[in-house]
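Q: Sequence in, structure out?
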Amino acid sequence: NPVSAHDGHDEAGAKNSGGSSTTFLVEKETQFLFSIQTQKIGTGDFTESSVLLGTVTAAPQGRAVIQSPQTGKIVSLRVTPGQRVGKGQVVAVIEQQVDAGTQISIISQSNTVNAEFEAAKAQYERLKAIEDIAAKKDITEAKARYESAKKNKALFDANTGRNTGSTKAITLTSPVSGVVGTFNYAIGAVVGGGETLFEITNLDQVFVEAQVFTADVSKLKSATMFTTTSATDTSVFKLKMVSAAQSVNTGNQSQKVVFELVNPKGQFKIGENINVRMTGNNIVRQVVIPNEAITEVNGKPAIFIKDKAEQYSISFIVKGET
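A: Exactly. Output:
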């Protein structure tokens, strides 16, 4: 529209002020240089979907906490932070310090268990040697006494490691396969009973806890697919619902649903917030516009429409479902 420099110079009958136009021209050469792409407007089948907010958590068999069962001194550390370990691999050795009173008690119990085992063994072997003239009841009782003493001795040896000295070595092994987390302990450090040394996490199997509000509960039951996107390389990963909600959060009336990430490939970290896209089975026919074609003008979503070969116009829109 014609725009005047200032009032007083307008032609007769012209407006006092001009306005911006929604139409502009882009020559074909410019379209080529700027690689402007177009797509025909048309209706298409649109599958409705919803987004849930989820948090990545460790799988039940994907995380282990290595703790010291007794107070002692670290004599060996077999792993370093970031190292991948296998199930059953030795990760640390702790030397338990035994005081004099406990040591005397252990030795006394050891002598008692060994004496009972030797006596029961000798009696059972003697009765077996005269099995023809000995009473069957006596042989049965002697055998039961011998078996009981044998089990008690094996249990005592297993708990003491056949070590009745002032020190006892405790070997800590990894119950799962994974990567060792960070820790600040060194050889010679004294740790208390139940104190955590480090954690081992397996990112090859992780769970996702998602919040589902009342409006999305019905969609959850009819959903055909659950997906999420990795923040590192924008790859799409599928999820499988493991457990439906068993309770409702009284604070915001949301329900917690647990998903399992199918083949996460170590792309997700524990505690990471992700969006879970829930795809429904309702298909509607609407005008579908690519997300790449939507831009913002003065903070409002808009698209550019190609009216003619070199003529474009701008149209402000209201976004629908994505």
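DSSP finds four helices and 18 strands in the chain.
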